[in-house]
Structures are given as C-alpha cells and as structure tokens.
Amino acid sequence: MTKQKLFFIASMVLLFVPLAQADLSPTAASLGEKLFFDANLSDPPGQSCASCHLPGAGFADPDRELPVSRGVHPDRFGDRNTPTAAYALYSPAFHFDENQGLYVGGQFWDGRAATLEEQAKGPFLNPVEMANADSAAVVEKVRRASYAKEFDRLFGKGSLKVVKQAYDHIATAIAAFERSELFHPFTSKYDYYLAGKAELTQQEKRGLELFAAEDKGNCAACHTSQVGENGQPPLFPDFTYDNLGVLRNDENPFYTQPARFTSKGAEVIDIGLAKTTGRDVDRGKFKVSTLRNIALTPPYMHNGKLKTLREVVVFYSTRDIRSDWGKPEVAENVNTKELGNLGLANDEIDAIVAFMQTLTDGYQLDTSFVKR
C-alpha cells in the first residue's frame, strides 16, 4: 500500500476521534493536530508532518521500500531514516550530563533540536522535506488556512501578524499535539502485562529475561526497561547517544540526488552527534531510539541499513565476529563493551524479537483473562 493511501486511511480514522472540538473550544493540541495533518504547508503542497510520521506506522514513515523518506519533491531524499515521533515528549531537553560525561536528550538523531518545539520548525524549511523557502512562506500559508482564526483565540489578537512570533506559535501548537495521549497511549501488550491484565507467552518472557540480562542481550543497558519512580511504564531509551558501528547504507538515494542537496555528494560521511557538538569524541554517535512500536517502524538504524528486527539483533550479537558485516561508516568511538559479540543462539534471538513485538500499542485485551 502506498504512503498516500496509508495517510488517507489514517486521516479518515482521526476524523472520527478528534482531540477536541477545536472550532468550539480550541486548544493548542487540537490546533496542532490540524497543522500536523495539513498537506498544504509544503512547497509545493502535498506533504505534511504526518506524511513521514503516520499514526498507523508507529508515527514513522509508512514507506518501507526506501531506507529514508522522500521529500515533497519526488527527486529529493533525506539522509537518515525517519525517527518515530511517538513518546518523543519524554526526551529531556538536549544537555550535557556532567555525571555521565555524555550528551542526553533532544530531538532528531543528532540532538540538533533541543525540544519538540524546535524540532517542529525544522521539516518545514528543509529543502529535502517540505521545502519552504523560509518561515514567512509557512506563516502565509497558515494565515490562509481554515483554522487561522484559532491562533488569535489561543495566542491573542494578531498572533499571526509578526512572522517570528507566528512561527513560534505554529511550533508550540504542533508540540502540544505531540504531547497528547495519541502519541503516548501506553497500550501495548507489555503495558497490560505490567498492569496484570495480560500474560506473556513463554517465548516473550524468555525474551524479556534475555533483553535485561547483562551477560546475554544486555539491551536494557541503553533501552532502559525499568518502571519509573511514579509507576510510569518504561520508555526503552536512556536518551543518550551511541556509535553502534553501523555500516554505510549505499542503497540510500540521498547519495545520488543533485549535489546541492548532499553537500559532498556520494562521499559524505554522517558523523551524527559530532555535527551538533563539534567534538571528535561524538563522531558516529546517534540517539538511542525508543523501542516502543518498534515492530511498526522498519527499516532500522539511523540510515535504514537493517531491514528487520531480527537482523538488528543478529547484528548486535555478531558485529565483531562476522567479517561479512563490513566496516562501520565511522570507525571511531564504536561501542565494543555492550554489543558486537553477544553469543546469542538463534532461539534466543527469536525470543528477544518476540518480546520487542509486545511493545506495539493498540493491543486488544482478552476480556476473559484472569491473572493467576
């Protein structure tokens, strides 16, 4: 099914479950919902935030045929796999943690946006995404939108008059929508298991054990699986950055598009976090992603190099002992302490994958289930 068809279906579903009756009592989230799904805000029209962050695809790109997303111009592509927007609200503002000696939080794979609000401003102006010339062009389109009057009700009269202020309001509304329950429902099988409302299979339980075991999968070292102090279910990232030794993805069409959109063309090397921090010690590091809804968001890794969850676990287990994997795109700072030679057997790999598949939201409870 094409991205356009999936987008249409998801949009129709959302029409029947609105966040609020915005015309009667607008909220920042309900206004943000309109902005998020408005395909008229690109240049040319045709791409919205939801085009690459579709609810039915785990708030990631529904097009699994490419490792990266296609922009509103069909001959332009991004250089990275679209990260999910689900649960992104829990990422702290980008900062350096003195205790850990690491950068933590932020948005995008490289942390270049400190907050959801800053992240929301980026795609509108990116020439390989929504391709608007500047923020004034975006604001002018919003001024002509059917929901324009809602800005004055929420932010005061003349809220769209000054471009900088208006662009801030647009980002504020989108971020408010991304903080709504739709993006963090905690309705996976694992959530219900923690609440005593569902039971994991033997394979899923074994996968959970292997996931957490330091001498086995050790996945929880970065994808924290502990319940929060306030009882909040685990989010499954620690919000840090890591170089996993991922190979360059030569299937990425980004490398073969017009040179003005690739800076160095096919020779470009993605240095990740170091592009944001300017530190050599951060070369090749990318943000640890959440595992929630991970089964819905292939391909995987920052460049879409790995196509299935099983391939990811096999890579983690055998990266340093199988020569056919090849060399990492960035050889410095590769994490060799927590992955690369895990010694997982095939059935253990399958069990870890089975557990990760329990993290998909929308699980249908068995109403006859009785906790033993």
From TrEMBL:
Q: Which GO terms describe its molecular function?
A: cytochrome-c peroxidase activity; electron transfer activity; heme binding; metal ion binding
- Annotated signal sequence is 1-22
Q: Which GO terms describe its cellular component?
A: periplasmic space
Q: Which residues form a coiled coil?
A: none
Where it mainly occurs, coarsely classed, is periplasm
The record's keywords, sorted A to Z, are: Heme, Iron, Metal-binding, Oxidoreductase, Periplasm, Peroxidase, Signal
Q: Which InterPro entries match?
A: Cyt_c-like_dom, Cyt_c-like_dom_sf, Cytochrome_c_Peroxidase/MauG, Di-haem_cyt_c_peroxidsae, MauG/Cytc_peroxidase
Cofactor dependence is on: heme
Recount the PTM note: Binds 2 heme groups per subunit.
Return the cofactor note field: Binds 2 heme groups.
Domain Cytochrome c, which positions? 27-146, 202-360
Q: Where in the cell is it found?
A: Periplasm
Question: Does the record bear Ribosomal protein in its keywords?
Answer: no
What name does the UniProt record give this protein? Answer: Cytochrome-c peroxidase
Please tell me the species this chain comes from: endosymbiont of Escarpia spicata
Give the lineage.
Bacteria, Pseudomonadati, Pseudomonadota, Gammaproteobacteria, sulfur-oxidizing symbionts
